[in-house]
Amino acid sequence: MAWRLPTQMATSPGSVDYHVHPRLIKTCNLHGSLPFRHASSSPLLRLVFSPSPPGRRRCCVQPPLVRCAAAANLAPGTPVRGTSILVVGATGTLGRQIVRRALDEGYDVRCLVRPRPYPADFLRDWGATVVNADLSKPETIPATLVGVHTVIDCATGRPEEPIKTVDWEGKVALIQCAKAMGIQKFVFFSIHNCDKHPEVPLMEIKYCTEKFIKDSGLNHIIIRLCGFMQGLIGQYAVPILEEKSVWGTDAPTRIAYMDTQDVARLTFIALRNEKVNGKLLTFAGPRAWTTQEVITLCERLAGQDANVTTVPVSVLRLTRQVTKLFEWTSDVADRLAFSEVLTSDTVFSAPMSETYNLLGVDAKAVVTLEKYLQDYFTNILKKLKDMKAQSKQSDIYF
Amino acid sequence: MTMTTASTGAAFTNTTCNPYSKKWRPKPPLELVLGRNSTSNSTVRCCRSAGNRLFSLSVVARAAGPESSSAAAATGKSKDDEGNQKNYDNDGDGDGDEEEEEERSPSSQQQAAAASTMIKLDDVNPVGLGRRSRQVFDELWRKLTGLGQISRTTRTDDETSLLINEGGPMCEFAIPGAQNITVLVVGATSRVGRIVVRKLMLRGYTVKALVRKADQQVVDMLPTSVEIVIGDVGDPSSLKAAVKGCNKIIYCATARSSITGDLNRVDYQGVSNLTKAFQDYNNKLAQLRAGKSSKSKLLLAKFKSAESLHGWDVRQGTYFQDVVPAKYDGGMDAKFELAESGDAVFSGYVLTRGGYVELSKKLSLPLGRSLDRYEGLLLSVGGNGRSYVLILEAGPPGDTSQSKMYFSRFNTKVGFCRVRIPFSCFRPVKADDPPLDPFLVHTLTIRFEPRRQRPIEGPAGMKQDLRNFQLIMEYIKALPTGEETDFILVSCTGLGIEPTRREQVLKAKKAGEDSLRRSGLGYTIIRPGPLKEEPGGQRALIFDQGNRISQGISCADVADICVKALHDSTARNRSFDVCYEYMAESGKELYELVAHLPDKANNYLTPALSILEKNT
After folding, report:
1. A-chain residue closest to B144, CA distance
2. B202, A100: Cβ pair inside 8 Å?
3. A210: confidence class by pLDDT, cuts 50, 70, 90
4. Residues B531-580: tens digit of each pLDDT
5. How many domains in chain B?
6. Does residue B201 belong to the interface with chain A, where contact is any CB pair within 8 Å?
7. Which residues of chain B from 152 to 191 reach within 8 Å of chain A, CB to CB?
8. Which of B149, B190, B600 to mutate to test the interface with A (most CBs of A within 10 A)?
9. Are A125 and B144 in contact (CB < 8 Å)?
10. Nearest by CB: B202 against A103, A239, A384
């Protein structure tokens, strides 16, 4: 009945049996409870397994300690090549840059991609191998890890799905499999300051995952990120070019946006640096920007005024409160939870000089937002206008 | 009729269905937005039942108008996509306007247009309505939720965003015009070749891969959009299809075993066959353009008839003018004539010590041509394998007294051969003259002198008199310059090969390299140290010539050099060794090496190669 991985994941006395157990995960799924909490007192992750009462409960009644107390399976066999990596979430904004970078640096890249009606052909076109698996179906994971040296995890659930299926349950399964199958390095992308915002579900999950990785004993690197410049294109640059309305908030929050290509580059430098093993790095862009500043910059570069719709942060919070009231909007509420961050944090950035020193990277080599957007506008302006006639929204509706 | 239903439905939705809108009265536009979104969610969730779809549409209609023309545009566009534009209803215009006035919305052109496009027969199709409403809701909802996010980008997998984010000029890998360049990769499944293919794909090149068998294992190893050509480098006939349409070739195939037959087949004959096939293809292209192609050579002289020999003067002379000819000097003689076989033969003997004979002609180039567009001379000659000196006189055409002489020595083989002499090989006779400027060349001379002749290899006991010669001339052409390399060959330095087989391997590789150099293609020969399977771009590289390197190099770095060399004019016609940087023990440094750190940002190849010898 119990489906076990062929591994030595021993349970320490007094702790809950913690084998990869799809049924268990399914159970949690069905109950809809969040099987974790922000553990501020204990360094160990506390988990509640079934039977847990249905409903949204965040407290644990009996917090059992959970450990992955096992050494990696280092039994003799065919040695794994150091250039073989698995990228989880390869179709995402960051993931595809990771894949490109890896391929260009000569790695053999395998991409874990969810089975989908329209396969991610661009990954295959670049020369990566695509394997179909789904983090929310743990039984599909182990096969993808065979022969892999390093796992780079840049996956996050899609906005429309419940936040914890991929981001928590899937990740736990992935990490356990990685541990069980002797993956030699695990790179995990987290969010900056995720330990300070337990009220934001995604950040709490990321923080718990960080801890889970640390406890698992995997050789790991955790990289916390602030924000991607690529996101600004869709959010501000394109609407301004197309003379559509741009939505911004009046929050004074500053975010140190970073180019995903730089993130990918630094990631691989970190990956090869033995000194970074087991460390937590934060990657932040050279300067932190407010929404208004970004819009002003885009306006200047595009040479046209933006039609800005400013949404006060209070409204966002209010929406969140309202959506929290109903169970069927709870996912929406989770997604809006960043408004809490927006109101509390004034600067979402981190000093980078130490990281640069550690990695031996020149700070000047990291692209600034001005440069990035300028490149974008000068290069794409014309192209985009040509394409505007044909291009359409991509989402497929049924 | 249906429209009225829809509009009432809209009113209904706005007032009754949205319990939150009251709260947010003070900010009208925002209220609309948020209200719609909250409702939207409910609508989206409820509208599975067909009855509700009309509601959702009406919300769309008004929502699209006031706040975001984008939404309206989106709806309009999607309708266009459905291709049902015939059912345009003019009455609809009025209806739409009235409706908007009722709803006290600000009137604008866009709005009117949006409203008018709303009224089509297609609109009342409940499936279409539901879909459209969801589109608009989703977009607006995404915008709102996007505000509360930090590092999430809208997920668009379509080609547009792909182009912007990856393939387009925004991408650090992009090379302008790469999509118009087709590169044939030979040995695409080798350690280097695999990475070369990926790098080329990432940069947007069109890639062809030559494989021996297209079995599943091979196909899986290559990116899906690589064109796979089946062929074998050992089989010239199979290469025709492979080179068709190719602009450049990267050859990273190597023999799988060190059996001499294998080595010969892949490392020597393979290169030779492929260069021939590629040249044939280039020549075919050149012919199609009637010799006007940039790849066409310029014919300087073709010796096939008695007239063609006209203008060529035979002269003789001696280097020691002040010495009285010795008593037993046999003298010298030479003639240039059309033999009975139809060959133009320059032959004779030079017995005088320090004497020489030469064949010379004043060049007459076709109108509008000058030699500065060319990079060297190509001679097709035969004979008994002596070496000759080719002398070019350059100077202002009107005043021959200012001419300067430049010379270059070339060897021939017994039988016919083609000799390429790059202009860069010519050295001034007077050491302090400036280097040769091909533009000023006006006279061409071929000189034979008995000095420094090497006996040709032949059956022992065959008596050779090195003082007589025979040179059968077929043609002299000027080779067009190319900015870039056409053929990149990944060879090896011989390090890391087991010593017993090293000789054979190197011999085959060298033969392959030589055949490439002679082919007339722009070539780059890369001789990496022992290959290591590790990621590239980590360690500094040393570029050197003369077989002095001692370190290994990662496959990815070799692949990177291949890809960089495609468009680097300094890489053309160069052979070089490359390996990781290493630190010599102090006191034991033999020579100074300059290391270059491979990086995407800087172009390390040009400075590294520019100090190295060309045409090696």
Report:
1. A247
2. yes
3. very high
4. 888 888 778 888 888 777 778 888 988 998 898 888 888 888 888 888 88
5. 3
6. yes
7. 152-158, 160-166, 168-173
8. B149
9. no
10. A103
pLDDT at B268 exceeding the cut of 80: yes
- pLDDT, chain A, mean: 74
Inter-chain contact A126–B201, Cβ cutoff 8 Å? yes
B199 touches chain A (CB under 8 A): yes
Look at residue B260 in the predicted model and tell me its pLDDT. Answer: 81
Which structural domain range is residue B606 located in? 178-285+485-610
CB contact under 8 A, B41 and A158: no
Query: Residue B43's pLDDT band (boundaries 50, 70, 90)?
Result: very low
In this structure, the answer to whether residues B489 and B470 fall within a common structural domain is: no
Q: Which residue has the tokens 């709102």?
A: B144
Mean pLDDT of the A289-318 span: 82
Pair B506, B469 in one domain: no
**Nearest chain B Cα distance for residue A68, angstroms:** 30
Structure tokens at B62: 């008004």
Please indicate whether, in this complex, the C-beta atoms of A316 and B148 are within 8 angstroms of each other.
yes
CATH number at residue B311: 2.60.120.430
d(CA B493, CA A23): 58
DSSP conformation class of B373: G
**Hey, are the CB atoms on A242 and B70 less than 8 Å from each other?**
yes
Candidates B152, B221, B553: best to mutate against A (most CBs of A within 10 A) is B152
- List pLDDT tens digits, range A374-391: 888 887 766 666 665 554
Here the contacts of B317-325 (C-beta below 8 Å, separation 24 or greater) are B317/B355, B317/B356, B317/B357, B317/B358, B318/B352, B318/B354, B318/B355, B318/B356, B319/B354, B319/B355, B319/B356, B319/B449, B320/B353, B320/B354, B323/B354, B325/B352
Phi, psi of A365 (to 5 degrees): -75, -10
Please name the member of B34, B153, B600 whose beta carbon is closest to the beta carbon of A228: B153
Look at A206-220, B232-246, B493-507 and tell me which has the smallest mean pLDDT: B493-507
Tell me, yes or no, whether B532 lies in a domain. Answer: yes
- Give all domains of chain A, ordered by start, each with its CATH number: 227-259+285-356+367-388 (3.90.25.10)
Residue B377 contacts residue B390 (beta carbons within 8 Å): yes
Q: Is residue B427 part of a domain?
A: yes
Q: What is the ipTM of this complex?
A: 0.70
Q: Are residues B470 and B322 in the same domain?
A: yes
Phi/psi for B595 (5° steps) reads -95, 145
B328: which 2 tokens? 């037993």
Rounded to the nearest integer, the mean pLDDT of chain B is 72
- Of A81, A227, A315, Cβ closest to residue B150: A227
Average pLDDT, integer, range A47-73: 38
Same domain, B470 and B362: yes
The domain spanning residue B588 has which CATH number? 3.40.50.720
Same domain, B100 and B7: yes
The pLDDT of residue B143 is above 70? no
Residue B571 lies in a domain: yes
Q: Is there a single domain that holds both residue B319 and residue B438?
A: yes
Angle at CA of residue B31, ends B27 and B32, nearest 5°: 130
Q: Are residues B260 and B338 in the same domain?
A: no
pLDDT value at A291 more than 90: no
Secondary structure class of A246 (helix, strand, coil): strand
Is residue B153 in some structural domain? no
B132, closest residue in chain A (CA to CA):
A397
Q: What is the pLDDT of residue A104?
A: 87
* Cβ–Cβ below 8 Å for A375 and B555: no
Same domain, B243 and B361: no
Asked if B218 is an interface residue toward chain A (Cβ–Cβ < 8 A), one would say: no
CA distance B316 to B60: 98
Range in A134-138, B255-259, B358-362, B514-518 with the lowest mean pLDDT: B255-259
- Consecutive H or E run containing B128: helix B126-147
Do A158 and B155 make contact, defined as CB atoms within 8 angstroms? yes
Residue A273 with chain B: CB contacts under 8 Å: none
Q: How many CB atoms lie within 10 A of CB A356?
A: 16
Identify which has the larger pLDDT, A148 or A328.
A148
pLDDT for B390 equals 92
Name which of A120, A323, A395 is nearest B138 (Cβ-Cβ): A395
In the numeric block, the tokens 């979430």 are attached to A89
Point out the domain boundary residue: B476, B505, B539: B476
Query: Averaged over B421-438, what is the pLDDT?
Result: 84
